[in-house]
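Hi R.,

Here's the chain you asked about this morning:
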Amino acid sequence: MPIRTLCDILTSLEKEFQKPELLRYKSRGEWRNISTADFVATVRALSLGLQALGIERGERVALLSENRPEWVAFDHALLNVGAVVVPLYPSLLTEQIRFILDHSSARALVLSDEGQLAKVLPALGSLPGLARLILIDPPVEMPTQALAWTALVKEGEEIHRSDPGRFEMLRGGVSPEDLASILYTSGTTADPKGVMLTHSNFAANINSTLGAIPITPESIALSFLPLSHAFERLVHFACLAAGATIAYAESIEAVGQNLQEVHPTLVATVPRLLEKIHGKVGDALRGASPIRRNVFKVAMAVGRREVNARFSGRRPPLWIRLLRGEAERLVHAPLREKTFGPRIRFVISGAAPLRQEVAEFFHAAGIPVLEGYGLTEASPVVSVNTLERIRIGTVGRPLPGVEVRVAEDGEILVHGANVMQGYFRDEAATREAVKGGWLYTGDVGQLADGFLTITDRKKEILKTSGGKMVAPQPLENLLKGDPSISQAVLIGDRRKFISALLVPDFGWLTAYARKERIPFGQPSDLIKEPRVVDHYRRLMESRMAGLPSYETVKKFRLLPRELTQEDGELTPTTKLKRRVIESKFAELIASMYKE
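And here is the predicted structure, written out as tokens:
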């Protein structure tokens, strides 16, 4: 049933999808279940409790918590009372949190625990409008304006007993045009902007997504991407609207173990996880016997040929059909079970580009990767590959109801009911982003046969001092295609030539050093070893072969560690913060242009 407002998700759950395992989470080593009935009752009680607390329709309330069932309960409780939800990434630091709370004029803040509270306390003096703090896991001592969420639930339950019709009256006043959420973008180059999305923006995207992706009441999703990101939140909305079960990973480090415990049918992820799984399989193969390596190689070749034939509408050759059963038994099925579990039907990949060879690897193993494209300003999904129509190397076809065109300069423009209302308290930025109803995404791409391909970010195009324009992402992905490279950052804007910062895959590097009998203490010690540097020099030459001279990486430097979000070098969605990286490694970069 199509939804008009996000409040309809709760209605649909209550009427159509009563199940004992709607949400799952792990506590004290055991997986525990939350039924549909319990979830609906909790949302209702929280809504009534929040209204009694003074939260009115249209007021902003921020959420600062890791993924957990309470996050989702508060999200829906606020939406059903007509409040505006402001999600915050749990990894944000005090000043970043203060900026968003101040800019959004948040009246209340929901926090997960004492650790998040410790980050907020130093900012409270500069936030006079923040009237309430609500703690999911309250500490023994709390600030005067704080209360435990269980108190809200208790008060809401009492209100419902005395006035059974109040909740329906509250949610009945929410209209599709009402503002549902303000999502602050990651901010790779400046302060984040607050994207305003209405109930109808989200509803249009949910309805279109469910028309393209087969999410059913039998589906089981494992959630580990931040719920504060539009991609994961949309997946949640779609799963709940379809009556699917959602299980919450204990942490990003525990995802591998949790996959084996939950056995999901679908996973929404960013390319980094897929690249790491691909790399680990490669590492394992390098230590395997020649027979095992050859069996694996043949099985994956069979899978690739079968997939390519199917995608092009052809019947696979006879020899592929004859070998398919053995390839499945010996390699494909065990690989699926060891990576995502035996029930996996598909993986949705978004937020960043996925290398083609990684996508081909998973498709060949019988794990379809549905790569898509979106941005917060589009609620967020614009296009996605589907099980029926896949073209590897693209981000699929636009969703039903979403119109895409490519401007003369290559910028992707989006039009549809999913396009944002604008940026909160930033009319100038809104006028620049939305013109004539079209969203100017800032991404550069191409449309061919209805399939969209993203080539780069418009603002990230490097212009050398010689006037040549170079798109960094394709070259970075080309470099990361080698198993010895984990991360790559192209440098060259307003410089004489293109150079690169490379982060080695330290697992590969360790194995290489042992094979070559190179002594080392820590893997990072190896980046100055002549034989290691020579390996990357030869690799660079082979990867750059055939490229125009102005696109060729002339020099490089190896970094001693991974670029991380914690060090401020990546956004929460793993995008490179190029200005931060160039500033941090300014001296190293300068050395490449002095030689």
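One quick note: The longest strand covers residues 438-448.

Cheers,
M.
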